[in-house]
């Protein structure tokens, strides 16, 4: 810690406290996340190791830079990141910031580029939500918080269905799938897109997975073997969980102010069957990004 001068606390995460600090040798302002060891006898915290493994050598314009990491005598791991100015949750909740359709397009472009970069490296983020989309002062979005991220690939890895914050969690995970993959992150991307258009969370379940499933099915309609082949083999369904059939809600009614091309892209992402859901690469090629209005240049974004 002697290389840094702590300036102030920035916040408290699940795994530890984050401080703004100055790197004494360079004057660079950084954010230091201190992750305490939960069980000292087991060595350093596994989420820290995960995050270090994935972020080291991962340089991308829209992924948070891990500057360095060091341990302290209490076995805490200190992760040093470039310091962000704000995040997308704060922007969405700040009523003084106007979010134009062009601003939303810029945010979605940056987010999809970050997610595409992760998926190209077989990394699942598994906790995509507005508060993990940080912004530098110059308007660059930086995807952060890789504490839940995992590598995936073939043969399909069994993954815990517990990851991902409830409102951004896809139906396959809520139904107990353990072989989900990149499409799970894309569901969360769709929820963020919808939240930008609505300026409030899109599928706001009440604490339980079943309540979240109800929110989802009210929007998408209930799943059937027709619209989601194989869905009945998912753990919760094969154990007997059923729903009364309901039709989908037309997106034009939910997003009356959104342009047609935005709704078309959203419809391609918010799809029950993960095999049908658009990938990040497909989404970046959607006409939405080519059509007017062009995305606001990042220097023109109002970050509050
Ligand atoms: P986390 O543990 O990643 O959830 O972070 C906890 C808090 O610290 C959140 O409120 C973040 O906004 C803040 N934070 C995390 N990383 C950074 C960063 N690189 N720059 C600025 N603030 C950050």
UniProtKB/TrEMBL annotation:
Region annotation Disordered: where it falls in the sequence: 285-304
EC numbers: 2.7.11.23
InterPro entries: CDK (IPR050108), CDK7 (IPR037770), Kinase-like_dom_sf (IPR011009), Prot_kinase_dom (IPR000719), Protein_kinase_ATP_BS (IPR017441), Ser/Thr_kinase_AS (IPR008271)
Intracellular or extracellular location(s): Nucleus
GO biological process: cell division; positive regulation of transcription by RNA polymerase II
GO CC entries: cytoplasm; transcription factor TFIIK complex
Annotated keywords: ATP-binding, Cell cycle, Cell division, Kinase, Nucleotide-binding, Nucleus, Phosphoprotein, Serine/threonine-protein kinase, Transferase
Domain of life the protein comes from: Eukaryota
Record carries keyword Protein transport: no
GO molecular function: ATP binding; cyclin-dependent protein serine/threonine kinase activity; RNA polymerase II CTD heptapeptide repeat kinase activity
Keyword Protein biosynthesis included in the entry's annotation: no
Domain Protein kinase: 4-289
Active site: 127 (proton acceptor)
Chain sites annotated for binding ATP: 10-18, 33-34
Family classification: Belongs to the protein kinase superfamily. CMGC Ser/Thr protein kinase family. CDC2/CDKX subfamily.
Subunit annotation: May form a complex composed of at least the catalytic subunit CRK2 and a cyclin.
Protein name: Cyclin-dependent kinase 2 homolog
């Amino acid at each position: 810690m002697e290389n840094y001068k702590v300036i102030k606390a920035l916040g408290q995460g699940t795994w530890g406290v984050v401080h703004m600090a100055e790197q004494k040798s360079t004057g660079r302002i950084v954010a230091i996340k201190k992750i305490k060891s939960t069980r000292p006898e087991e060595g350093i915290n596994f989420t820290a190791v995960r995050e270090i493994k994935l972020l080291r050598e991962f340089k991308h314009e829209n992924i948070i830079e891990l500057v360095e990491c060091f341990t302290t005598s209490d076995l805490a791991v200190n992760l040093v990141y470039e310091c962000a100015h704000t995040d997308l949750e704060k922007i969405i909740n700040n009523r003084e910031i106007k979010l134009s359709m062009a601003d939303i397009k810029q945010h979605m472009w940056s987010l999809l580029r970050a997610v595409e970069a992760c998926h190209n490296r077989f990394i699942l983020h598994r906790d995509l939500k507005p508060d993990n989309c940080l912004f530098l002062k110059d308007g660059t979005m930086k995807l952060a918080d890789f504490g839940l991220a995992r590598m995936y690939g073939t043969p399909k890895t069994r993954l815990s269905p517990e990851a991902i914050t409830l409102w951004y969690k896809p139906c396959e995970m809520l139904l107990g799938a353990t072989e989900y993959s990149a499409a799970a992150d894309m569901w969360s991307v769709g929820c963020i897109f919808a939240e930008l258009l609505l300026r409030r969370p899109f599928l706001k379940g009440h604490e339980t997975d079943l309540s979240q499933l109800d929110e989802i099915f009210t929007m998408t309609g209930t799943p059937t073997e027709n619209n989601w082949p194989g869905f009945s083999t998912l753990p919760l369904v094969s154990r007997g969980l059923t729903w009364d059939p309901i039709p989908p809600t037309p997106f034009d009614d939910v997003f009356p102010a959104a342009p047609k091309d935005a709704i078309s892209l959203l419809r391609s992402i918010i799809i029950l069957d993960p095999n049908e859901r658009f990938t990040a690469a497909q989404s970046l090629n959607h006409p939405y990004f080519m059509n007017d209005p062009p995305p606001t240049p990042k220097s023109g974004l109002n970050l509050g």
